[in-house]
Amino acid sequence: MTGWAKTRWSRLAPRERVGLVAFIVVALGFVGYRFLLKPWSLRTGKTSAERKTLQQQVTKLQDSLIAMEQERQDVQQQREEAAKLKDEVDNLERQILASDELGQLLGHLAKQGQGLGITFESMAQEVDESGERPEVKIDLVFASPYAALASYFRRIEELSPYLTITDFEVSEPAEGPSDAQEVKASLRTPLRPAGSGASTLAKNPPTPEPIVIARSPFHEVAKHVPLVDVESLQLTGITFRGEASTAIINDEVVRVGDKVKELQITKILPDQVIVSDGSESHAIPLNK
User: How many Å is the Cα radius of gyration of the chain?
Assistant: First the structure.
């Protein structure tokens, strides 16, 4: 402190000294706040705001990255599904017969009749190109035992999933009743252009188990003729006691399980007896 300052300080009263010190402290505080603390606070607040903005941008960017990854996975899944669908379509397309395979198909149709007693009379084909995709119609005329028809048509189905039987007619031969019926069948299948590759036409299709048809509707069912004339049996008495029941047939006492003229007693009722010849049952009424 200079001499002048010391002189001035010594002349001040204690109260004035306190006031001067307080003024100097306040002035220093104001200057410190104005030029040091306030700028620092502003810089700190700005830095905090910038950091918060940056954090928000980072969060937004992270959300965008997550969404982009999800979209990428969705696109990848759609591509895989599209590729799988394309493979399925290509596989279905390969199963369609190519127009240059018609001869091979006709050979298979004839081959499938082997071992079934089928005799082919004619095979005619006609290509229809009026629709969106060409189709071929095949008309078959053959003679076949009625029992073999279902087996033959089942074999045809094994050749191609697109080969369908659109119509067929079964009739008795013109020369009269026979074991083989005259059959007219129409088949249809779509076609691919020639030279577009071989189809999956079964070269050696599996032979399914034959379907057995009990009888042909073109043959009459033989009427059953009993081995014994049932009307020759006379039922003259019944003692009905449940399982211990007895009956008198042609003056002979019989029970359930006994036989009369090759006819077995199967049931004794209060007013009749049931007998069987092994194929059919017959009722013998009580003569009253």
Answer: 54
Total length of the chain: 288
CATH architecture of 98-192: 2-Layer Sandwich (3.30)
Write out the E strands in the chain.
Answer: 97-98, 119-128, 135-145, 164-171, 180-192, 235-239, 246-249, 252-254, 259-260, 263-268, 272-276, 281-285
CATH architecture for segment(s) 230-285 = Roll (2.30)
* Spatial distance between the Cα atoms of 242 and 251, rounded to a whole number of angstroms: 21
Closest CA to 228 of 282, 186, 165: 282
Q: Who's near 35: CB < 8 A, 6+ residues apart?
A: none
Judge if pTM exceeds 0.70.
Answer: no
Q: Sign (positive/negative) of CA torsion 25, 28, 31, 36?
A: negative
Cα distances from 77 to residues 80, 85, 86, 87, in angstroms, run: 5, 12, 14, 15
Read off the pLDDT of residues 35-86 as tens digits, 9 standing for 90 and up: 666 666 666 666 777 778 888 888 888 888 888 888 889 989 999 999 998 8
